[in-house]
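Action item from last week, closing it out:
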Amino acid sequence: MKSSKRKICQVLALAISSISASAAMAAGPLVQGGGSSLVAPTIGNLTATPPGEIGLFGTSEATFTYYSVGSGAGQSAFLFNAPSNFGTGVTGTVDFANSDAALSTAQVTSYNNTGLGSTEGPLIQIPYIVTAITIPVINAPAVTSTTTPQTTPGQTHSISLNDSDLCGIFSGKIKDWNAVVNPENGSFYSATSKPITVVYRADSSGTSELLTRHLHAVCTTANTATGVTFVDSLTFANTTAFPSGVPSNFIGATGSGGVHTTLVGYSSAGTPAAVAYLSPDYANQFLAPSSSSASNPLAVASLLNATNGKYYSPLYTNATIALGSISAPSGATAAGNPNLWVPVAGETGYTALANPASGYPVSGTSQIIVSQCYLSSTVSKAVVDFLTDHYTNASFASLVNGNGFDTVPSSFKTAIVADFLSNTSGFGLDIGDSGTCSGVGR
């Protein structure tokens, strides 16, 4: 009898534990977003191992969910409040999006003037993290340098590329390692032929935008394949850049994970030689020591900054150096313009970001896009508190650094908190502002 009672109690305990766990997972309202695959390991989900920011934030206020679908899909999901962009069967509200590419001036204007801004409130776009874009080199010639920086676990020096190498490889002008010039000595890397496969993002990707922004700034007809003209774009293989289609040695992959998997396969097989572009958290754990997405390490190149003649690894500190003296918008009018927080073509600071005077040449910021207004005050508070943790909590900063990124400069943090999270600036731009958000919200 005692044994039976004990078993019944054990069953009840398990049932109660299961119910409690389910309740914890479902605590608070659902706050869902998605987009950039670059920041996906950092943001994470409740079940992510190691935990990302969502895991650190917990479920006491809301249950955050993130869909890694690429920057372009994330932008579109937010601008049209279209959760189906996150995947078949996803419903509800798009509360936020992350994109490594800034929204264009036209996108912001359309949203605010003729889109959902009139019924759901203005959008807010602010830099979320600082990132370099790495250039993985697979089955490349042996490293012989004694001066270039370390970029990969277990090495002392790295293969380095300059802008002409990047323009030649990513345009299809250079298709073999024996045609790649070592910027250290001006000679070719290898006399032995090693044909190069270029792996690019086939989806709409902010990582592509950060690369093509730089290529657009530095590539010329002299160092680029005939007929190829790079433009700043989320779509690498766009028809303006490649009017006749990408070269035959190019292969597309979807998402940061897709690029990483393709490159790991080439590395394991010992062939072919390959070059790609990828965020640090999918490259290796020298750059992103706590990223499980980088557990199968890829060798990456250092890059020569053409302006100051120095070699830089894609460490997050070198990405922050590349931002230079760019500062947060000052004053109510400027702070209320989403494009001034992340310079786009035509805005002050764009050229400096596209081809920085110092630091790692292919660097920038990844953005978060949120609404100023939410119909639920609970959602509004949860978004504010999540962002406050992201920008001010040391544990969140450590997680960002561990994934190979830097936190935004302190001047940006101060301005973001003052303008959007607390309204200590007095601009009325804060999330949930009673004047702006009366009767509107998503």
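Closing note: The longest helix spans residues 2-25.
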